[in-house]
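Aggregate trends can hide what the representation actually does to any particular protein. In the encoding step, the backbone of a single protein was reduced to a row of integers, each denoting a local shape. The record that follows shows the chain in one-letter code together with its fold in token form.

***
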Amino acid sequence: PPFMAPEVWAGNFGRACDIWAVGVMVFYLLTGQYPFMAAKIEDFAAAVAAEPQWTLMAGASTQGQYICWQMLCKAEASRPTAQQLVQHPWFQHFDLGGGLQGLRKTVCRGLMGVARRSNFEKFVGRLIATQLDAGQLGRVNEAFKAMDADGDGTLSRDELHGSLVTLGAKEEEAARVVDELDVARTGRISYTEFLAGVTDLRQKTVQERDALLWLAWQQFGPDERGLVRTSDIQGALATRGMTVAEMPQAFMQQLRKGASGTMDFETFKGLFEADGS
């Protein structure tokens, strides 16, 4: 009950009630007391209609007091949004590891570069994304959760677009990234699609890049000679919901040049290294 906004007690509420709850937590962290308390549950509606004892926050910074006052505004339409809060200097001061701003350099740089990648890079990124261990990708997971406002395990186009704009992307840049990641054109971006977008091979060291390319290569099931055939590729892609038609043209051309339609890892790696388009 101490965290419930006035509109919640009235039985009519939306996302702004979450901002109110954050305001209550900030007030408690800065003062050691809840801003609204009542002896009985039925008395809380009247308690939240009153003003908190703002003098308790005298020891907090001016910015801290002001942002708390904004979040605890009785009129829900006047409260800041979550995106506005993460941009506020008071929150940025703490460099919240799970927030969007704290993830700008480590994760979002990869996302913003996805539209500039070649078809081959995008294809390899999708292969890699299906095999990476999500349990080892803490920063990526934090970013995905921070952007997933409704917590449904996928990103809507609006969620991703809004998050990128919050991080400083221009509207048209954010729109291009969303279009690139929504591979299946479902209007939702899955975790795997998001991970493929984050994986920017050209930002890796040579050793890291070769390891990831090898991981992608292994998805084709090379034989004992280290070669893959068209049939190997078809089977590998089918298990991942992809088709040969989605293969980059340069890959298929190189494959046809090999003996009986085969390719080895060095040739595969060479395609990436030579692909500057």
Observations:
- The mean pLDDT is 82.
- The longest helix spans residues 16-31.
- The radius of gyration is 25 Å.
